[in-house]
Amino acid sequence: MIYIPPQSIIFAIPKHISFDIPIDQITGICKRYRLDYFSGDIYAFRDENETQIGLLTYDGHGIQWCIKRYSEGKISWWPHDTEVVQLLPRDLQIMLWGGNPSKIKMPEMWKPIHNIKR
């Protein structure tokens, strides 16, 4: 299981990518969207087949790239905007487990740690 701290700021990148590309090309995608991959935020990517989610983050010492590959099935939900979408940490956890966060009844955040534009 991948631990996502509740105070994490997470962005879903709309562009499909090949997970065979070098890390420099992945960070280049962040630059094209004007995102600072050295900020410590988490950037979520999906592959062309929608069977893998990749997470990119910087921990103050180096860049980390983590991939979740589904044994069966595909990603059941991904933001379909053309723009980068900010996610709640709980939404990313649901997605990593193959769920659809838009179909799960969860209480509203009582006092969010950070402002999410929905």
Supply database-style keywords.
Putative transposase; 2 helices; alpha+beta; five-stranded mixed β-sheet
Brief digest:
This protein has 118 residues and is α+β, with helices and mostly antiparallel strands. The chain has helices at 23-32, 89-96, and strands at 10-17, 42-47, 52-58, 63-69, 85-87.
Topology:
Elements (H helix, E strand, L loop, with lengths): L9 E8 L5 H10 L9 E6 L4 E7 L4 E7 L15 E3 L1 H8 L22
Parallel strand pairs: 1-2
Antiparallel strand pairs: 1-5, 2-3, 3-4
What does this structure look like?
The protein is α+β, with helices and mostly antiparallel strands. It has one domain. The protein contains two helices and five strands; from the N terminus they run βαββββα. It has helices at residues 23-32, 89-96, and strands at 10-17, 42-47, 52-58, 63-69, 85-87. Strands 4-3-2-1-5 form a five-stranded mixed β-sheet. The radius of gyration is 14 Å and the shape is globular. It starts with 9 loop residues before the first strand and ends in a 22-residue tail after the last helix. The mean pLDDT is 89.
